[in-house]
From TrEMBL:
Organism: Liquorilactobacillus satsumensis DSM 16230 = JCM 12392
Cofactor list: [4Fe-4S] cluster
Listed name of the protein: Pyruvate formate-lyase-activating enzyme
Lineage per the UniProt record: Bacteria, Bacillati, Bacillota, Bacilli, Lactobacillales
Cellular localization per UniProt: Cytoplasm
Catalytic activity of the protein: glycyl-[formate C-acetyltransferase] + reduced [flavodoxin] + S-adenosyl-L-methionine = glycin-2-yl radical-[formate C-acetyltransferase] + semiquinone [flavodoxin] + 5'-deoxyadenosine + L-methionine + H(+)
């Protein structure tokens, strides 16, 4: 039976004494969703509306498959033999931080079982206001590593691109740096939106200020999700924009100093510059 209990004054859906999550889909053998091979859980719901989002079907909240944390674990555990020492479970989205209570409960169980935990987030829900911030602190105690997408370094441009400003997202990055939590930073390179040398250089400089970055990745914009917009009857804002050329991807990698972040290979944080 589904009922709700209040956790820190917010209603959280429950079943059989466990927190329920709204799951969009799962991937059994994720190879690009954190270190090693990972079972990836894509959660439903996102506040942002990134123009380039290739998963608009994850936007709607409180829909999808309702699963308890035990049900997710039971689905993931048969793949444990493939995870090795680096892999584990990644919670992604949508935006996983919108279901932070579910993430805390699932990752707490993972750590009790010795399973590696990775959070793939855009950071939009981050706030230092209580009670949310205490929950985030609790979640970080059971999270090994985060993949953080920085959509745009300029807050006005970030708002145009996603619908939200980025100050709190950069504040989350600073907090993660302060507590020494390992992160991989990812940035989608989009012609006419993010592919400008001045913004890329600013982002490169910003990342240099962080002390916890193990890896920086440039993700070239692609158009593979456009059909979903057509099927869902949503206007696609980047119509006519092509993926960046290999030269521009190389240029972005240079401006973001991608080569300098190799900590993930040795599991140590690298911040030095040649
Ligand atoms: S944050 Fe992620 S899921 Fe949300 S709109 Fe942007 S790309 Fe899509």
């Amino acid at each position: 039976m589904v009922y709700e209990r209040r956790i820190h004054e917010r209603k959280v859906p429950m079943r059989d004494g466990q927190i329920l999550g709204y799951v969009h889909s799962t991937e059994s053998f994720g190879a690009v969703d954190g270190p090693g091979i990972r079972f990836v859980v894509f959660m439903q719901g996102c506040n942002m509306r990134c123009q380039f989002c290739h998963n608009p079907d994850t936007w709607k909240k409180n829909v999808g498959t309702e699963m308890t944390t035990a049900e997710v674990l039971n689905k993931a555990l048969p793949y444990r033999q493939f995870w090795g020492t680096d892999g584990g479970i990644t919670l992604s989205g949508g935006e996983i931080l919108l279901q932070i209570d579910f993430a805390i409960e699932l990752f707490t169980k993972c750590k009790q079982l010795g399973i590696g935990t990775c959070l793939d987030t855009c950071g939009q829900p981050f706030t230092r206001r209580q009670p949310w911030f205490s929950k985030f602190e609790q979640l970080m105690k059971v999270t090994d590593i985060l993949l953080v997408d920085i959509k745009h370094i300029n807050s006005d441009e970030h708002r145009k691109l996603t619908g939200y400003r980025n100050e709190n997202i950069l504040d989350m990055c600073k907090y993660l740096s302060d507590i020494g939590k390992p992160v991989w930073i990812r940035h989608v390179l989009i012609p006419a939106r993010t592919d400008f040398d001045n913004y890329l250089a600013q982002l490169g400089d910003y990342i240099k200020t962080l002390k916890n970055v193990q890896k920086v990745e440039v993700l070239p914009y692609h158009t593979m999700g456009v059909h979903k917009y057509h099927e869902m009857g949503i206007k696609y804002s980047l119509e006519g924009i092509e993926p960046p050329t290999p030269e521009r991807v190389k240029n972005a990698e240079k401006l973001l100093h991608v080569e300098d972040y190799r900590g993930y290979l040795t599991n140590t944080t690298t911040t030095s510059r040649a």
